[in-house]
């Protein structure tokens, strides 16, 4: 029998990577950090048009657990980014990257959770939509979340600074 | 809910803060777990979860056949309710196959029992395949799921089914497949998607049985069906049984008066019957 065993996650990642590189998806590009390791990816996200992040190019790393796709990857921005749902160390906090039961983040019941059917593409597209539509209710960066509510001008200033920085670092 | 709050009440000051200096004085009476910070508490819970996971991972994903009486050792001798019920079940089902208690047990029990019977009854295999293919087609075409992952889970399931048709395939192959966590979990993934399709195809009907905390079928599926390790309930059983038209008979063994039997798709023409034992939070396979 062709034992796929623990390599199943690796095979799936390999297929997804090939697929993303063959037919690129609008808004981001993806590659491996180290060619010998399928479980760590680098993605470059283009700041979505008509948002404060427009014009920015944000680098992030995706770390896949050995149980992928049963368990979700972790995503961490390497570029500086100012956003209510991104921790100070760059880690992204959105519901699709968490399994059900991890309720300490206070997501609504209706929000999408990790399931094995999700792809890297669906995860990154969710992160892009998070950039367009911050969710101050489950804040990872409390200062940014408060700015979104109380002082949008200040929030904008912080974000635009990151956008300029990301262009300089490209 | 705040209907009795009149505008006058708004100006009444909040209770004076008197409790500021009590924290240190009464500290000795506070149990340890209450002294933890939120983060320490999270870590403690996380450790406990890891300990449980470690313990559970020692169980076989799919165990060997054992006499049903083995359950008597699981419960205390003087637990008269359960001991009596085990005896009752033994009358009709002399053997049991225990499945790992990892939240996937219903699906793993169903999948293994189905394929074990198909192995002995190969002519039924092709009767099931069309519904499996329709699941894949609907997921991708009708409900917009990514083909990349759906096809992966589907192909894995079909590959094992096809293997059952071969003359030399035996129960050892099936056991090896279901004890290989990669293959076994992939099978579970696909069966979870079968339930998902069935509920989405008949969303209006199934919504009647779903707690109102889930406003849509999608939110229920995303939280309670599609992710791994979340436990199954009546709806999962109904969804899987109906979609594939496979008969399932569940013996419910809980603290109630007597063992309850629940039948799903009783009139199915497919010559397969999945017999399961339910104990609160867990499913195993039963044999006559």
Automatic annotation (TrEMBL), chain A:
Keyword field: ATP-binding, Nucleotide-binding, Transferase, Ubl conjugation pathway
EC numbers for this chain: 2.3.2.23
InterPro entries: Ub_conjugating_enzyme, UBC, UBQ-conjugating_AS, UBQ-conjugating_enzyme/RWD
All copies of domain UBC core, residue ranges: 8-168
GO terms, molecular function: ATP binding; ubiquitin conjugating enzyme activity
Xref: SMART domains: UBCc
Active site per the UniProt annotation: 93
UniProt-listed CDD domains: UBCc_UBE2G1
Keyword Flavoprotein listed: no
Pfam families: UQ_con
Entry keyword Cell membrane: no
Residue stretches spanning the membrane: none
Family affiliation: Belongs to the ubiquitin-conjugating enzyme family.
Protein name: E2 ubiquitin-conjugating enzyme
UniProt organism field: Oopsacas minuta
Automatic annotation (TrEMBL), chain B:
GO molecular function annotation: cysteine-type deubiquitinase activity; ubiquitin binding
Catalytic activities: Thiol-dependent hydrolysis of ester, thioester, amide, peptide and isopeptide bonds formed by the C-terminal Gly of ubiquitin (a 76-residue protein attached to proteins as an intracellular targeting signal)
InterPro entries (UniProt xref): OTU_dom (IPR003323), Otubain (IPR016615), Papain-like_cys_pep_sf (IPR038765), Peptidase_C65_otubain (IPR019400), Peptidase_C65_otubain_sub1 (IPR042468), Peptidase_C65_otubain_sub2 (IPR042467)
PROSITE patterns noted in UniProt: OTU
One Pfam family in the UniProt entry: Peptidase_C65
Site (Interacts with free ubiquitin): 252, 254, 278, 283
BP term (GO), one: protein K48-linked deubiquitination
Isomerase keyword on record: no
Residues the record marks as active site: 102, 105 (nucleophile), 282
Residues annotated as domain OTU: 94-288
Alphabetized UniProt keyword annotations: Hydrolase, Protease, Thiol protease, Ubl conjugation pathway
EC id: 3.4.19.12
Domain of life, source organism: Eukaryota
CC annotations in GO: nucleus
PANTHER family named in the record: UBIQUITIN THIOESTERASE OTUBAIN-LIKE (PTHR12931:SF15), UBIQUITIN THIOLESTERASE PROTEIN OTUB (PTHR12931)
Protein family membership: Belongs to the peptidase C65 family.
Name of the protein in question: Ubiquitin thioesterase
